[in-house]
Design brief:
alpha/beta; Rossmann fold; 2 domains; 10-stranded mixed β-sheet; globular; binds NADPH dihydro-nicotinamide-adenine-dinucleotide phosphate
């Protein structure tokens, strides 16, 4: 593995760069780990885009964002003094040649660009001499469907080998998602019961209080299904459901996630199951209030086209067709403008096969709750009741997870800058994730699943709660 010399950011004036990418670099620069710090310390941060920006303006932006990531002042100053901005259009080969000419060492090309621009940039790069070892960092969503994702993969494969391509999913760098690996595979307790014989269902929920926050340009054509379920939540599923990999490396770990994704399909293969709970549901928020903040209806937000019928809450039930998971529903859900939002994986265990006469089991089944945000684990177990030791109650074992010093984008950048793609999405998996959601997208477009409504600040449509 070789280390990167220049981080070229296409889309340097965008939201991702400012809010997540550069603060992530700041967290790497401030890391207590010498090796991590070194990855960032000698880097040239080369911003680029069509926007006019002076070198000093860019350096100020880099400084503010690195400070936000918690990096110490002297290290920030050193990095800022080397940062540069080169104006250019990422879809113009001549501009790309000019930009690459300003790089030193192995360049990382970070595509912080709207998805519609990425393919054009890759086409333009095909006409340019690329330096040896160049690394591609691709954001999600990767393509618009399985066909365009396959096409993009094929184009990229002509330019760089797969181990130099990082398809980012920062949920794979989330502390408890990775923590689950330790809990399952470095202990005796959980893995023996981690199967269809003992588990009733698995819920993977990522709701947020945030509403559109001015991102209609992207979100109104994506919606919750593509923005969250198609990428992040399926990646979380792949870790929850994986077989033990031989090692946590780019071959074994990614192979184990790929095996799960390849075996995953919509519950009973049908987005609309007549006479039963549908295996996909969608809804959109109407005007409401969260934490004293008034929110307009989604359709009244700036830049929203109501005829897109974009959902702000999506739910989909999938099955993993392996011996371990046969018959277990995995419920994936994510929504915006949700009050008291839950962000967690809930593993619900089956009722015991036998309870001795004279013991009264608790009302609720045992559960393991993996908090994605905030991070933590809770395990519900049957314990003696307060009054009568034979009438069992539910007790909860809880543990918090230390907040890691690297942000999720710090973790993403550590992988990219050290040339280790273990926590990035493999080419075939990026295509398969589209294959899983495509029947839902088609059914929704055809109007086969109603677009429900919920008040901003509520838990979702009332009919869903029932
Ligand atoms: P933005 O919409 O903010 O766009 C980023 C930059 O791309 C713009 O500042 C612009 O820079 C450039 N750009 C826009 N249109 C064009 C065009 N037609 N041709 C060339 N360049 C163009 O995107 P984000 O920063 O929000 O997102 C970037 C990527 O990251 C997307 O793939 C997104 O899905 C992903 N992502 C974003 C997250 C977020 O929270 N923002 C979270 C996770 C992933 P200029 O005008 O200077 O050329």
């Amino acid at each position: 593995m070789s280390e990167a010399g220049t981080l070229i950011i296409f889309g340097a004036s965008g939201d991702l760069t400012k809010r997540l990418l550069l603060p992530g670099l700041g967290s790497l620069l401030g890391s207590a780990d010498d090796a991590d710090r070194k990855l960032a310390a000698d880097l040239i941060v080369l911003g680029t885009g069509r926007s006019e920006k002076s070198r000093d303006e860019w350096r100020d932006e880099v400084r503010d964002a690195l400070d936000e990531g918690g990096a110490p002042g002297d290290a920030v100053s050193r990095l800022v003094d080397r940062a540069d901005y080169v104006r250019g259009d990422p879809s113009e080969p001549a501009d790309l040649t000019h930009i690459l000419g300003a790089a030193e060492g192995i360049p990382v090309l970070y595509f912080a660009l709207p998805p519609s621009v990425v393919e054009k940039a890759v086409d333009a790069l095909a006409e340019v001499d690329l330096p040896d070892g160049v690394i591609f960092a691709m954001e999600k969503p990767f393509g618009d469907d399985s066909e365009t994702a396959a096409k993009l993969n094929a184009k990229i494969a002509k330019l760089v080998p797969e181990h130099q391509v990082h398809r980012i999913d920062h949920f794979l760098g989330q502390p408890t998602v990775l923590g689950l690996l330790g809990m399952r595979f470095a202990g005796r307790l959980l893995d023996p019961v981690w199967n269809a014989e003992n588990i009733e269902s698995v819920e993977i929920v990522y709701d947020e209080e945030l509403a559109l926050e001015g991102r209609a340009g992207y979100y109104d054509t994506a919606g919750a299904l593509v923005d969250m379920l198609q990428s992040h939540l399926l990646q979380v599923l792949s870790v929850v459901a994986m077989e033990a990999p031989g090692s946590i490396d780019e071959v074994d770990f990614r192979g184990a996630t790929a095996q799960v994704i390849n075996a995953t399909r919509l519950w009973e293969g049908d987005p609309v199951l007549p006479g039963t709970d549908a295996s996909s549901r969608r809804a959109r928020y109407t005007a409401g209030e969260i934490d004293g903040r008034k929110l307009p209806s989604y359709v009244d937000e700036d830049g929203v086209d109501p005829s897109n019928e974009t959902e702000t809450l999506a739910e989909m039930v999938v099955q993993v067709d392996t011996r371990r998971w046969s018959g277990v529903p995995f419920i994936l859900r994510s929504g915006k403008a949700i009050g008291d939002a839950r962000r967690e994986v809930v593993v619900t265990f089956k009722r015991p096969n036998f309870v001795p006469r004279g013991l009264e089991a608790p009302h609720r089944p045992e559960r393991l709750v993996v908090g994605i945000h905030p991070s933590g684990f809770e395990l519900d177990l049957a314990v003696n009741g307060d009054q009568d030791p034979f009438r069992l109650d539910q007790g909860t074992l809880e543990t918090e997870v230390a907040t890691p010093e690297l942000t999720q984008y710090g973790e993403v950048l550590r992988g990219i800058l050290s040339g280790d793609p273990t926590l990035s999405v493999r080419a075939d998996v990026a295509e398969q994730c589209w294959r899983i959601v495509e029947p839902v997208i088609e059914a929704w477009k055809a109007g086969e699943v109603p677009l429900d409504e919920y008040t901003a600040g509520s838990h979702g449509p009332e009919s869903w709660t029932a």
